[in-house]
Design brief:
Length: 144
């Protein structure tokens, strides 16, 4: 690798790290065809923090999307899952995939302090992972 290529690679890595740090994500985004369950959770989280409930709803499973339009989805999030909308760091702590189902554990570290944990259930719909549900839990695995 020549010096010019090395500088371009270094710049790309630094720029990607800066973008991830500013958005609070610990994983780099991939193309839509390559999203794994953790990427889906982190992208929905980024949309929720941005207040983009339409984009956030697009990561939900068909059955869930059928129950809410974009406005009702946003209202449901603000009513029952407001912590998911707060700025701060989001860290995927565990991912398990069992056939067409997946489970993702997410730790939120809001800028106001503290930690909040959520367990996501995802299902494969066609070639995409979709969020079927989310519940708060404590780090010892007890559902709250």
């Amino acid at each position: 690798m020549n010096a010019s290529a090395a500088r371009r690679l270094l710049f790309s890595l630094v720029a990607t790290g800066a973008i991830l740090a500013l958005t609070g994500c610990d994983r780099a985004p991939e193309s839509a065809q390559e999203l794994d369950p953790a990427d889906v959770v982190l992208r929905q989280r980024a949309a929720l923090v941005a207040g983009d409930y339409r984009a956030a709803r697009s990561y939900a499973a068909d059955e869930l999307r059928g129950k809410f339009d974009d406005v009702a989805f946003g209202a449901m999030i603000l009513r029952g899952y407001q912590r998911l909308t707060e700025p701060g760091r989001a860290v995927v702590s565990a991912v398990s995939v069992e056939g067409d189902q997946a489970f993702v554990s997410l730790r939120l570290e809001p800028s106001t302090g503290g930690s909040h944990w959520y367990r996501y259930a995802l299902q494969r719909e066609g070639d995409a992972w979709r969020i079927a549900g989310v519940v708060p839990f404590d780090p010892d695995g007890v559902m709250l």
